[in-house]
Amino acid sequence: MTMPVYLDSAATTPTDPRVAAVMTRILRSADEYGNPASSTHEYGDRASELVDAARERVAASVGATTADVVWTSGATEANNLAIFGVTAYYANQGRHIITARTEHKAVIDPCWELERRGWRVTWLIPGPDGIVAADQVEAALEDDTILVSLMQVNNEIGVIQDTRAIAAVCAQHDGARLHVDAAQSIGKVPVDFGASGADLMSLSAHKAYGPKGVGALLVSQRRGVRLEARQFGGGQERGLRSGTLAPHQLAGMATAFTLASQELPKEAQRIGALRRRLWDGLAALGGVLRNGTEQGTVPQLLNVSFEDVEGEALLASVSELIAVSSGSACTSSSNEPSYVLRALGRSDRLAESSLRFGLGRFTHEADIDQAITAVGNAVKRLRKISGQCATAA
Amino acid sequence: MTMPVYLDSAATTPTDPRVAAVMTRILRSADEYGNPASSTHEYGDRASELVDAARERVAASVGATTADVVWTSGATEANNLAIFGVTAYYANQGRHIITARTEHKAVIDPCWELERRGWRVTWLIPGPDGIVAADQVEAALEDDTILVSLMQVNNEIGVIQDTRAIAAVCAQHDGARLHVDAAQSIGKVPVDFGASGADLMSLSAHKAYGPKGVGALLVSQRRGVRLEARQFGGGQERGLRSGTLAPHQLAGMATAFTLASQELPKEAQRIGALRRRLWDGLAALGGVLRNGTEQGTVPQLLNVSFEDVEGEALLASVSELIAVSSGSACTSSSNEPSYVLRALGRSDRLAESSLRFGLGRFTHEADIDQAITAVGNAVKRLRKISGQCATAA
Amino acid sequence: MRYSRLTWEHFSNASSAGVLTGTDVARAAAGSAADGTWVQFDIRAKRRGFAAALIIEARFQAFGCPHTIAVADWLAGRAAGRSAELRLPEPVGALQQLFGMPVEKLGRLFVLEDAWVGAVQALLKKQENA
Amino acid sequence: MRYSRLTWEHFSNASSAGVLTGTDVARAAAGSAADGTWVQFDIRAKRRGFAAALIIEARFQAFGCPHTIAVADWLAGRAAGRSAELRLPEPVGALQQLFGMPVEKLGRLFVLEDAWVGAVQALLKKQENA
Ligand SMILES: Cc1ncc(COP(=O)(O)O)c(C=O)c1O
Ligand SMILES: Cc1ncc(COP(=O)(O)O)c(C=O)c1O
């Protein structure tokens, strides 16, 4: 069977061959396989050097210092560590946090859990463009707000939040720390943790052509952010996150992040052109609505709702030719309509009849044309099967 | 520089080339790089099949069912999930747990944290052979004991606990669940989770020639064990542990575990002979004490205290020829004498003057001979430097 | 989501999709697109003396998931030559099994049933009045 | 743990390890093996008129970490030709720097100092009594 064209880069990306090469080298190495915590011999030292080098490269690629980096198993863990770690540490200063309805599940679910434990959570609803305005955050801040958690790039529609403006608002409020989920940012928007004014930032390797199962939480040392550890043991990561570190994974992440920041400007252009081509092709079908604007979103994502087409039938019709998602990958195994699109004001029906196209480093013009053809044929056929009446009914 | 002979297999093991090959194949694959949670396309399906296959192989190799397996980032996370997850779930049934002073930090530290939060912890002290007797557990059980956490194979001296006898004692006590840290067991002792009577079991790949950064917690479905999740998000692992799964890591772990259980009988013999050779060579030096008995320990570990030799000087003297550890890898970066050896009744001085030799799949006779020579020379030289007086003083 | 071969064949071909025209055609629909499932059947039949009507051809239109479209196509495609009865040719449970539909989707089969039975009803009424 | 080149050289060669014998040898030790650090110095010197004694040779024995052994070896090896003074040739802080010792190990230098100063003291006493 020929595989469909991969257009789901927001769910995950293939490991870049240059990343895989670095990882393979370490996995096969005769002298770098030590435990980075083994300080009594050369194998441990070399493993630990790999970890240090990865820390430096990741820090450099996102404008952080090496001391800011706490390695994790991915952005899910990073988000959980940020949210539970900060709220536990500052619990005596307040029990109110602010987030948005359009966050990733890995932020929403920890916040729900905090609500269950008696915390107050303000759930901001972004405007129809997906933007959470700094004003909204300002209005939501209360005396006992200790954490604001907002993502930089949304994983469903690609909208870019003005996290600096939000950081400026938080800075006016004594004690409201800002956590930014930047899992979808790397390689798509420039990331400068130091300049961003954020206190904490979550990263994941596999959204940026790195390996799955590794990420980091940046914890600003300069801003003096503290948090309670959640995983105890060997005392790795200055006690903030115990557990044996995996040099092959960290080196893979570092290589991926370095490549991503190097290639960002060129890729933004190239992929931007591909996205315009895709949108033009789809818009020609009529009855299509774009979720997210051209300007305010990352070029890698295009989210479109199709009128008069049932969502599952649409997805099934295109699935042999293109691999796309109808929601966040993490939620697409459930059949609920996307809560993000609903939060943006789309009806359940339209939310369900949406496709998320994730373009990436390995997407080329022919792939886009295949997508346009596949979706065009499917939409026309399904509209024919449903006739006029569907709309009327 | 030639690398020293690696004799620290209890800290970590090199990735077996067969494991690395499987991982490399997946990392370079053109169609298996999807997110296992992406249910809308073939890439996701294939990734998810890799996860399922790994789950089956890991389960089969440790006598568990696939439904028992909860993937984690390693045994540290598995231990934390077991201890915090179970105590949170059953908190209303009791706030007492039992563990031992000779556990790994990844059990001790979570238990300390629970003590800090007001739980009562009974810290059992094993006999001089390192064994925690089932009687001791029985005597420590209280009405409100909800968890007993004891390791199977100790990471410093290799002593094997009779976890079945302990499980039998727990079974008499309504509500005391048994968690077994089996991070050091794989490939060293047969592991049969189903038959063991344990409720939960922690596993790690990198102690068994698999990759670092991946492991699992087994949660017995048959025994109806419940626990609260600690990491929230996409709802992976039936909600018990959210976060994108890493097929290359899981497949690596599965391959490693399959190989380990296949090769166990043959390896136990081969490595047992190497360990006898090593012990005979070292014993000939005089003034050496074995920590752990020949019979009750895994053949992969030999822990020896050297009289009249300062520990750091000994380690430094041998470090160019052999890579060994003077304590658990996770704690060897601190210079405290091993708490395990102290718990077994060794003086601080002797605990500090101990070396842990970790033998493994890639250890051969010549390596053992090099170790005997290196240690012999070092001990003799250091004893000469310290003269007679050291002993007298 | 993976589909059974039968589902996939009927969904991807949907050769009985469409409408029938003429005064002898009976039509009924059920469900609504807003609720996610809408199905319409057109049936043409000939009278067989005093016995039940004999279906000559049937067509469907549907807004719905692949299972809905597949079952509608299957029903319409197999209708010719059967007598028009006020029930589905197979009970809902059997259809669910046949197409390997997840239980959560059972409701969609009831929409299909309503549309089908409605169309037969309309047909019989039409023939009564004729 | 990584050691500086100076530390490593003196630790691995330890060419001044050993004891001296004879009635003109002064000896003192400090610390204890049980506490982790024990050092002993043997010093032989010749009298220089009324001036301070001039060290001819020195040896050490030590139970201790590589830094301890290295510093002891350095002190003993450089002693010949120096006048016997009741202090280390370099202050403790300077030695710590010179050998790149972690601060936690400062205590070991005090043991070394005690042993060294004790040996010189014994030497001077011996010469007084002679
Ligand atoms: C915005 C966002 N946050 C967090 C995550 C979770 O990250 P990970 O897959 O590394 O656990 C994802 C991806 O699934 C994401 O898109
Ligand atoms: C007995 C034991 N438990 C737990 C761990 C921690 O496992 P991991 O390295 O997978 O975090 C180790 C190893 O460091 C161990 O030896």
Q: Round the Cα radius of gyration of chain C to an integer and report it.
A: 14 Å
Mean pLDDT of chain A: 94
Name the CATH architecture of the largest domain in chain A. Answer: 3-Layer(aba) Sandwich
Q: Please tell me the total number of domains of chain C.
A: 1
Helix content of chain C: 40-55%
Number of domains of chain A: 2
Describe it for me?
The complex is a heterotetramer, with two copies of chain A (393 residues) and two copies of chain C (130 residues). With 393 residues, chain A is α/β, with parallel strands linked by helices. Chain A folds into two domains: 5-11 and 264-392, Aspartate Aminotransferase, domain 1; 17-258, 3-Layer(aba) Sandwich (Aspartate Aminotransferase, domain 2). In chain A, 41% of the residues lie in helices and 14% in strands. Chain A contains 13 helices and twelve strands. Chain A has helices at residues 17-28, 42-61, 75-89, 105-116, 134-140, 163-172, 193-196, 247-283, 311-318, 339-343, 348-352, 365-386, 389-392; strands at residues 5-6, 69-72, 96-100, 120-124, 145-151, 177-181, 200-204, 215-219, 288-290, 301-306, 322-323, 354-358. In chain A, the strands form three sheets. Chain A has a seven-stranded mixed β-sheet, sandwiched between helices. In chain A, strands 9-10-12 form a three-stranded antiparallel β-sheet. Chain A has a two-stranded parallel ribbon with strand order 1-11. In chain A, helix 5 runs parallel beside helix 6. The longest helix of chain A is centred in the C-terminal third of the chain and has 37 residues, at 247-283. The model of chain A is unreliable at 328-334 (pLDDT under 50). Helix content of chain C is 41%, strand content 25%. By secondary structure, chain C is an alpha+beta fold. Chain C has four helices and three strands, in the order αβββααα. The radius of gyration of chain C is 14 Å and the shape is globular. In chain C, a hairpin with a 4-residue loop joins strand 1 (25-32) and strand 2. Chain C has one domain (5-129): Sufe protein. Chain: A, CATH 3.90.1010.10. Chains in contact: A-B, A-C, B-D. At the A-B interface, helix 1, helix 2, helix 3, helix 4 and helix 8 of A face helix 1, helix 2, helix 3, helix 4 and helix 8 of B. The complex binds pyridoxal-5'-phosphate (2 copies). Residues 74-76, 79, 104, 106, 151, 155, 181, 183-184, 204, 215, 329-330 of chain B line the site of one pyridoxal-5'-phosphate (PLP).
